[in-house]
Structure formats: C-alpha cells, structure tokens
Amino acid sequence: MSEQEPEQPLIVVRRAKRKKHGHHGGAWKVAYADFVTAMMAFFLVMWLIGVGTRQQRAAISEYFKNPSMTPGNASIAPPGKMGPGGASDSAIKLGGAMDMPHGPGKDRRSATRADAPDVEKLAREREKERLENLMQQLHAAIEKSQALEPFKDQLLLDITPEGLRIQIVDKQNRPMFDTGSATLKPYTGAILHELASFIDQAPNKISISGHTDDAQYNGEHGYSNWELSADRANAARRALLDGGLVEDKIARVVGLAASVPFDKVDPSDPINRRISIIMMTKQAQDAALSQEQAEVEAPASHPAAGDASAP
Asked: Residues 267, 213: contact at Cβ < 8 Å?
C-alpha cells in the first residue's frame, strides 16, 4: 500500500483591478449649457440693438440704470424725454418681433412719439441748409449790386442759432448815423432799401436790433444809449418798409445800447455801432412769440398783490 500523498494547500491569487477613468460625469454638460445660455443672451442683445429704434434703446438703457416704474431724480433726462430723468415711463414690450414697430400696421401714436425728435432734428438741418443758401445768394447779390459795392466791408453775414444775421456796421469815416442822432445817412438808407427786396423774398420773419459803443450819451430828460439804439433800430425798420418790405415780416425791434459789443476787447471801437437784422429760424420765431404771449398772459394768471381781484 502506497503512502498517501500530503494534501496540497489551496492558493488563491487576488489581482488588483485597475480603475478605468470615467467620462467626468455630467460636469461638461453644465459648462456647455452655460456657454449656450450666454451665447443666446448675446444674440438676443444684438437682435434688440438691430431691431429696436433709437428711442427704444434709450428707454431700455435708462430702465437698467434705474429699474423702477416711477420717475427718478436723475439730473439728466433720458434721451428723447422731457422730464426729471430716472426710469422711462414708456412700456417696454418683451414679446417677439411682432411687437416691434416695423410696418404700416404699427401703433401710429407710439411711432409718432418716438420719431418726433428725429423729425424736429431733420427740420432744423433743412432750415440751416436753406439759411446757408440764402447767405450765399445774398453774398452774390451784394457782389452784383452797384449800390452796395462801396459798402461791402460794412456788411457782415453769418449764421447764428437764431438765423441768418445781417449786420451793418459803422466805419470810422463812414458812419450810418450822425453822432448822437437816429437820422439815417442817405447811403445807409440805400443799403437798407437794397436789402429789403432780398429779405422780402424769404418767408422768415426778422428781428432788428440797434447797438451803440460804450461812449456815454449826454442827453436831456434821461435820454441815453438805450433810447438812442432803439430809435436807430426803428429808423432801420422804417427804411426797410420804404424799400418794399412787408410789415408783417417784422417780429421784433429792440435797442441794446452797448450791452452786446461786437468788439469785446475795445467797446469804443466804431464797429460796435451797428444795426443787426436777423432772418429768424422758425424755432427762434416761435420762441420769441411764445415768450411775448407768456408775458401778456402772466398778469391774468398771477394777479398783482394790490389787485382787488386777488384773494
């Protein structure tokens, strides 16, 4: 009988398994979603800029500066608004492209309100161009006129915020008036007669102002440079009417004495003695007339302290 072989021990081999790298879970999806959201917001902003009007963009900008539905207290009003500033009170539609005014079917009232500043700006630009054309025509007329030829150096033309300004200035040896007098020199009357026919062709109303130098006028009964400048302005008005100007074209006649010198460095310079005629823009004309109307209506609206009708 053979000897029994000893039982061999059971050997178990455990091998360490290598962990495979995963796909980082879902973190990349979150990052990608954030990127897509940012791009959508960017393109939405670009779409609003491209589709909205200038006034709508201004309203959106003002809303994010002060997101409130009540008027703010900003020192500068939002573009296109007349008010205390702060949030715009215009409704901002957040719908689709159908809400944007882009066709004949849009809200005419809101479109008119939004486009009003552009219309006014365009009207001012056209009027400025018309005044510049008038100035060029007047330059050409002065060059061709034999009556105005000797006085070209005394006629100054420029464009001001009020309109086309024509200034007739004194020269040392060729004054428009005698010293201390409101009587026109014959050649000054001839100049105004020539200008009257040109001014009458344009639809603009005119403003006439008289100016003196700073030499004190020693007149009787308080007569001063103020009265003298006003009398000279009225003398110019009468000469224009004699030259054929329609009286309805004259909107204002004032005397300013030496308060607005042409030569601020030398207030005694003869050039400060002048007659200024402004062919007024419609805006300046309306402002002047509305101011006068306000002054006329003021006593009725605000009774004086001694008025018996006052409470």
From this structure: yes
